[in-house]
Structure formats: structure tokens, C-alpha cells
Write a structure and sequence with these properties.
Blueprint lengths: L3 E6 L7 H10 L43 H8 L5 E8 L14 E10 L31 H14 L8 E9 L14
Antiparallel strand pairs: 1-2, 2-4, 3-4
Length: 190
């Protein structure tokens, strides 16, 4: 499995009335922030594609905001504050190990994003109560385990066959401990 990287805007209490309205609508009262690949909740920082990105991005439909080169992505977001730098794996066959690089990434959980790369079935589709309970989601709006994410993916397709947001990829999401400036070195690295 190869990791992909993306920088997204943060979505949480700092968003004031928008956050309060979202929590009331979604019933995610346990959330202290949403960390998601949902484009309408956590917009990609580099949403405007530039020709010089081609050698550094995933060359698939709906994937042009995902970078395969962390160093390049970091050079493009340098100086931008209030973002999440994410290391992600699409449809991992097993629970990914921590990505080993110059940045410490913390595993947060799993998101289920419709296959067209837009909406999170977990946090932005009004809920799918036959497939999962909102109370299962973490304080970041994610599912804790790989096994449960796969079970939800299967149940969404089976129980909601006519709902296009129910046809989802499972995404493992890790967040950089410090995406801006000099990241903390991993123990034993210089």
C-alpha cells in the first residue's frame, strides 16, 4: 500500500455558527472537530490544480488533490496555517502501520467517502442508521477500526443499493502532528 497525502481545511468549533448548525443537523454531539476527506466539510487546501502538480499527484479521476510526494505537498502549503496534513490509504486491505518519514503521523480512524470522491457517508449524508450509529463515530467523525469500517462499507451497499452516497471507498486517515514549519523529528532521527 502506498500512502497518499492531502492538506485540508479544519472544520470545528472555530467555525462558529456554521459548526453549531452542523453539529445540530448531524447529531455528532461527541465531535470536537471533523477530520474527513469530504470536500464540502474539509475543503482541500490546494483545490485549484496547477500544471506543475502532474508529476506529484495521483493521476485518477477525482484524485488530483491527493499527492504521492509529501515533500512537494509541504512546499506548496508552506506558510498556510490552520490546516490538516493527512496521510491516507484508499481501501487498505489491512490496518496500515504508521507511515515512516520525517513527520510523525497519528492514526485517527477510517472515513467512508462515496466512490466519486465527494461526500462522507459517516458525516455528511444525513446518516445511514441501518448500517451504523452516529454514536459509533469518534470525536473526529471517524470509525475506530478497519474491521468495522469494512463492515459498514458492505452494509451500506447491501442496505442502501439505490443511494449513490452508499457506494463508498474506505479511507484510513492519519494526521501530521505538526504540518507547519519544522515538524518534530521521530525518535532516533536527526
Amino acid at each position: 500500500m502506498e500512502p497518499w497525502f492531502i492538506a485540508t481545511e479544519k472544520f470545528g468549533p472555530q467555525d462558529g455558527d456554521g459548526w453549531l448548525a452542523y453539529v445540530e443537523w448531524s447529531k455528532l454531539h461527541q465531535a470536537d472537530e471533523i477530520v474527513s476527506l469530504d470536500r464540502s466539510l474539509c475543503t482541500p487546501i490546494l483545490a485549484d490544480f496547477k500544471d506543475e502538480y502532474w508529476p506529484y499527484v495521483v493521476n485518477e479521476d477525482y484524485m488530483l488533490n491527493y499527492f504521492v510526494d509529501l515533500k512537494f505537498l509541504r512546499s506548496q502549503i508552506s506558510g498556510i496555517i490552520n490546516l490538516n496534513l493527512l496521510c491516507v490509504y484508499r481501501n487498505p486491505l489491512f490496518e496500515p502501520e504508521s507511515y515512516d518519514c520525517e513527520i510523525l503521523f497519528e492514526m485517527l480512524g477510517y472515513d467512508l467517502i462515496d466512490v466519486n470522491g465527494g461526500n462522507s457517508a459517516l458525516t455528511n449524508c444525513g446518516g445511514f442508521p441501518k448500517a451504523f450509529s452516529v454514536s459509533e463515530l469518534s470525536s473526529k467523525g471517524l470509525i475506530a477500526t478497519h474491521a468495522r469500517a469494512l463492515e459498514i462499507q458492505t452494509n451500506l451497499k447491501r442496505l442502501y443499493p439505490n443511494e449513490h452516497h452508499a457506494n463508498c471507498d474506505v479511507w484510513a486517515i492519519s494526521r501530521a502532528a505538526s504540518p507547519i514549519g519544522d515538524p518534530p523529528a521521530l525518535p532516533g532521527r536527526q
